[in-house]
Amino acid sequence: MSGGAGPQTGVHDGGGLLVRVVTARLGGVFDEGLMALLNAEPAIHVIAGRLDLHQLEARVATDQPDVAVLGDAQIGAPSVFARLRAARPGLGVMVISHGLSTQRGTWLLSCGVNACVYQEAPAEQIVAALKVAAEGGCMLVAGPGDRDDGRVSSLTPREWEVLRLLQAGDTNAEVAHKLDISQETVRTHARHLYRKLGISGRRHLRALELPGRD
């Protein structure tokens, strides 16, 4: 589930793409497991791990990674995502959250996070989400048993990208330019958004408070 143009990743000695990552301190045993998981992936290079927010912001500025992985302790305010991308334009942002709900994940995606995964997700889903974030796509993996009203979980990664830009006030032409698609394709995505979200037009889209948004 990926879409859009993401940050430029590094290159292996062998010629394959290498995703460079910094991770925040997520907590105890999980930090150890995450480091072991990422270090076992040949296409992922962990620059630094178990960082507090101040350290993570500093390493994003100095090391210019492809993805920053944050946890619940680092996402008190959405402004953190803007600060990270100001330091590293095109940065992929991934959030790993304990007991992540669809509502919480939806709100994070609307704030500009690329990938949200519940902390107890299978290892392959965590790795897949990180790679989606590196590509600039969108992915949400909520915890099992989470209740979803069916509206937001039905959005495709591309529809999420269009939604973000339209809610920010971009015109069809601006969305088309940023996503490298035609204006007719933007209009098609917009019609799908209106239908899936149960709204009648752009005015309602801009005013929409997605589930879980404060």
Summarize this entry quickly.
Helices cover 43% and strands 16% of the residues. With 214 residues, it is α/β, with parallel strands linked by helices.
CATH-defined superfamily of the largest domain: Response regulator
Strand content of the residues, in percent? 15-25%
Radius of gyration: 17 Å
**H/E element string?**
EEHEHEHEHEHEHHHH
Secondary structure tally, helices: 9
The top-level CATH class of the largest domain is: Alpha Beta
Calculate the terminal CA-CA distance, rounded to whole Å: 26 Å
Q: Low-confidence spans: pLDDT under 50, at least 5 residues?
A: 1-9, 11-15
Q: How many distinct beta strands?
A: 7
Class of secondary structure makeup: alpha/beta
* CATH architecture grouping of the largest domain: 3-Layer(aba) Sandwich
CATH fold group of the largest domain: Rossmann fold
> How does the major sheet shape up?
7 strands, mixed
**Helix proportion range:** 40-55%
Q: What is the mean predicted local confidence, pLDDT? A: 82
